[in-house]
Amino acid sequence: MAGDPYVKRLLWFVFAGSKGGPNRMRLISTIRKTPLNANQLAKELGLDYKAIQHHIGVLEKNNLITRIGDKYGVTFFISTFLEVNLETFDEIVTKLEKSK
Fold first, then answer.
1. What's 80's domain CATH number?
2. What is the number of helices (H) and of strands (E) in the chain?
């Protein structure tokens, strides 16, 4: 699955094709290290809770993160789909960081 053109297009769109892409990249990088809930993510990333909810919605819709738990106790993890494609994610992050 590595190098799958569909995956590459999806990740480029989610992380580079829109204004919120850099924040979504930071969110993924953060929960990759330590799964957190939305409130913890807002504090960790210095973003508004509503912004975190929006980014979580985008990432869930594209099957890049999953949630475990209910209501306030929901913790977010990177999805199996993203785990399988972390090499592509890292490649995109590196290219975007170099282009700054």
1. 1.10.10.10
2. 6, 2
